[in-house]
């Protein structure tokens, strides 16, 4: 699970830091649990409007849930969103633990046309909210004083039991990604051991979450009734809470008493594990509802009942978070830090921003160009920079010296190191007077930019169709001419290793003859930069008439794409009169790799060679995308 950092000890500082860059319309924030989902629009740092709580049971998945909230805000242009979800987050595919929901983060982002969608664990978000909480946002339980810049623990029973922590760093905190609620439950007295024995009748493994949670309240209630040999109606957690807090019903009161004692022991274990002298904070949907009843419970006495470590725990304060929707502050902070990092906010850009008023009007134009187009300035020669900024070349040099650099080369060197990994790559025109360094950077940047655009426009449904055809193929043939023959040859080599009969034809006469010999169940993969070559189109007609399927790797609206059974579109345009199609070829190779990896995922694992090939292809695709 990813770690998240929040620089700065309080929201006042955090809000001041990023308020100037709060753009792109309101930000959509959400705290999605197993029972309820809370949404808001953040219109300014810490300003949450249109807060709405939806019941998850009313929706079949996360997309209908989000659509229901956004229905009332159709006029708002939302570009960035961040959701806290009661679930471990590891990669793009999310399968919720306490709900039958599964989704792709990238698919949801595209569905709603978002530039940014972050999904984080709900207790990671809650942990990120802690540094900004004020005294009025919490209720302290028991003694102890928080030690500044110390580890903080956070837990909270709700539908499940969330656990996290904050580790201090030199400039803020780092959150712990934890599923600590799933550790084994440890009883501390005879009554709790009887409850554990009762739980063992239902589950061979009883985690702490099974008992210290909403469903756990219900389990404790049933276990205590069995222990007292009482015949009772099974109650929901809400009914148990109401009966204990408002009716003083004895069995419900004992259930709450036992629940609070268990929570005290678990919180103490977390405190000694983390060394949490910054305090233990309790959130979730249960404890804050108890109010003073929790303060008077066995929680704190059980928290300090640690034998030789009782005095150690007596120093650690414990708090109940009482402010509503604290996770909003956490996901807001995580989203803001993400956007600030992506925008290339660095110390050097900060310096340029700060000294603008001290510069001459001409030098300010250079500063504005750098702030708006940092990668362009990094890649361009001084003549182009001066032209874009509408200043003389000596003015560019004077600007660099105003920042303390000896000249443009020195400035670029420091500027490049400060921007590493933070500026989105973009297409830059290669010019005849470019240095080797500049043209090398531009070629790489142009390729990476094309790959990123290709990824965002990828038609996953078409890839699924292509993989389904290949999975059933009796044989696969590749047809290509000219520069595309290298791609077809690569595909032949990869697919043959799956023990699929494979052939590759690059001569118009030969692939037309080969097409006449095809049968239903055969697949032809045709690779073409233009999708217009008559020889290929004729061969495709012959293949289709023979009953074979055709997968085209070609431009989307080309004649070849319209004839094919499936089109995997490569729409990148290059000047073929001057250069061979370099970037298009790389995108075509990527599609071949995607198809190969897609086949390897479902390939039988009985053959050792197939396992090795699947692993190799997966690494190959990852290396392509990472580059």
TrEMBL record:
Enzyme kind, highest EC tier: transferase
Domain HTH rpiR-type: 346-422
EC number: 2.7.1.2
Source superkingdom: Bacteria
Domain SIS: 466-605
Record InterPro entries: ATPase_NBD (IPR043129), Bacterial_glucokinase (IPR050201), Glucokinase (IPR003836), Homeodomain-like_sf (IPR009057), HTH_RpiR (IPR000281), RpiR-like_SIS (IPR035472), SIS_dom (IPR001347), SIS_dom_sf (IPR046348)
Keywords of the record: ATP-binding, Cytoplasm, DNA-binding, Glycolysis, Kinase, Multifunctional enzyme, Nucleotide-binding, Transcription, Transcription regulation, Transferase
Catalytic reactions on record: D-glucose + ATP = D-glucose 6-phosphate + ADP + H(+)
Gene Ontology MF: a single term: glucokinase activity
Compartment annotation: Cytoplasm
PANTHER family xref list: GLUCOKINASE
Family in the record: In the N-terminal section; belongs to the bacterial glucokinase family.
Full protein name: Glucokinase
Protein species of origin: Undibacterium aquatile
The encoding gene: glk
């Amino acid at each position: 699970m990813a770690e998240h950092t929040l620089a700065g000890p309080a929201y006042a500082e955090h809000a001041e830091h990023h308020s100037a860059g709060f753009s792109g319309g309101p930000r959509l924030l959400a705290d999605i649990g197993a029972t309820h989902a809370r949404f808001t629009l953040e219109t300014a740092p810490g300003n949450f409007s249109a807060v709405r709580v939806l019941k998850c049971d009313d929706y079949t998945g996360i997309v209908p849930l989000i659509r229901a909230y956004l229905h009332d805000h159709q006029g708002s242009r939302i570009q960035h969103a961040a959701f806290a979800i009661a679930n471990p987050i590891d990669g793009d595919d999310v399968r919720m633990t306490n709900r039958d929901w599964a989704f792709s983060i990238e698919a949801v982002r595209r569905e709603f046309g978002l530039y940014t969608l972050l999904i984080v664990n709900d207790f990671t978000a809650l942990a990120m909210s802690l540094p900004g909480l004020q005294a009025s946002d919490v209720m302290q339980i028991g003694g102890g004083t928080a030690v500044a810049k110390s580890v903080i623990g956070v837990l909270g029973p709700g539908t499940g039991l969330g656990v996290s922590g904050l580790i201090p760093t030199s400039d803020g905190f780092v959150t712990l990604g934890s599923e600590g609620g799933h550790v084994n439950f440890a009883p501390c007295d005879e009554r709790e051991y009887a409850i554990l024995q009762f739980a063992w009748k239902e589950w061979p493994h009883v985690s702490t979450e099974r008992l210290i949670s909403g469903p756990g309240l219900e389990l404790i209630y049933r276990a205590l009734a069995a222990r007292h040999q009482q015949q009772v109606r099974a109650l929901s957690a809400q009914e148990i809470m109401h009966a204990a807090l408002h009716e003083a019903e004895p069995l419900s009161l004992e259930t709450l008493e036992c629940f609070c004692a268990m929570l005290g022991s678990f919180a103490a274990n977390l405190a000694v594990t983390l060394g949490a002298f910054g305090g233990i904070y309790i959130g979730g949907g249960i404890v804050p509802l108890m109010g003073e009843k929790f303060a008077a419970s066995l929680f704190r006495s059980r928290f300090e009942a640690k034998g030789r470590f009782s005095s150690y725990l007596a120093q650690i304060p414990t708090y109940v978070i009482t402010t509503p929707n604290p996770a909003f502050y956490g996901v807001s902070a995580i989203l803001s830090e993400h956007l600030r990092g992506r925008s290339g906010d660095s110390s050097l850009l900060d310096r340029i921003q700060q000294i603008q008023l001290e510069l001459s009007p001409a030098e300010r134009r250079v500063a504005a160009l750098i702030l708006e187009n940092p990668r362009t300035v990094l890649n361009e020669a001084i003549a182009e920079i001066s032209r874009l900024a509408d200043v003389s070349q000596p003015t560019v040099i004077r600007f660099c010296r105003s920042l303390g650099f000896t000249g443009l080369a020195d400035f670029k060197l420091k500027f490049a190191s400060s921007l590493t990994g933070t500026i989105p790559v973009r297409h830059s025109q290669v010019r005849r007077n470019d240095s080797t360094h500049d043209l090398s950077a531009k070629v790489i940047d142009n390729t990476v930019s094309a790959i990123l655009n290709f990824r965002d426009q990828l038609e996953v449904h078409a890839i699924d169709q292509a993989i389904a055809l290949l999975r059933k193929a009796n044989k696969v043939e590749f047809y290509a001419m000219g520069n595309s023959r290298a791609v077809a040859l690569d595909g032949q080599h990869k697919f043959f290793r799956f023990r699929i009969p494979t052939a590759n034809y690059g001569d118009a006469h030969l692939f037309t003859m080969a097409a006449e010999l095809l049968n239903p169940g055969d697949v032809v993969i045709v690779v073409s930069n233009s999708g217009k070559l008559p020889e290929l189109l004729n061969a495709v007609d012959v293949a289709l008439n023979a009953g074979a399927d055709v997968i085209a790797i070609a431009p989307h609206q080309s004649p070849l794409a319209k004839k094919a059974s499936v089109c995997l579109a490569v729409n990148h345009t290059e000047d073929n009169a001057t250069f061979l199609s370099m970037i298009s070829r790389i995108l075509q190779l990527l599609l071949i790799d995607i198809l190969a990896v897609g086949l390897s995922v479902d390939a039988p694992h009985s053959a050792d060679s197939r396992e090795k090939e699947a692993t190799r292809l997966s690494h190959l695709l990852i290396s392509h995308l990472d580059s």
